[in-house]
Amino acid sequence: QVQLVESGGGFVQPGGSLTLACAASGFTFGDTVMTWYRQAPGKERELVADITGDNERTTYAASVRGRFTITRDNKKNTMYLLMSTLKPDDTAKYFCQASTVTGDFWGQGTQVTVSS
Asked: How much is the pLDDT for 65?
């Protein structure tokens, strides 16, 4: 079955950096568009960034463009989100999503807290 496991969240001061990872299994990872979402308390889930299966195209939310980088390693079936210059507004639970041929699947999320 499809499994998505996020890791790498934590507590960081403003201006700091974190790298999230999403380990995937149960589907053909290299054929699948992968997406990072986030959800802050009391807010709707929002798309952060996505990446095509062939690593050719990425898109970013305006709020993170230039600070976050989405990458993937198809040999390791893992997607990453490199986050830098973090702001308190980046505080949220971050989820990875796989858009597979059999449907969309979600991980359980990893918490990122940015605070001084």
From this structure: 97
* Cα separation, 94 vs 30, whole angstroms: 22
Mean pLDDT on 13-27: 98
Q: 106 CB contacts (<8 Å, ≥6 apart)?
A: 4, 95, 96, 97
At 67-101, the pLDDT tens digits run 999 999 999 999 999 999 999 999 999 999 999 99
Q: Which residues contact 82 (CB under 8 A, 6 or more apart)?
A: 17, 19, 68, 69, 70, 71
Q: How many CB atoms lie within 10 A of CB 1?
A: 6
Listed as own residue / partner, the contacts of 6-9 with beta carbons closer than 8 Å and 24 or more positions apart are 6/94, 6/95, 6/96, 6/107, 6/108, 6/109, 6/110, 7/110, 8/110, 9/93, 9/94, 9/110, 9/111, 9/112
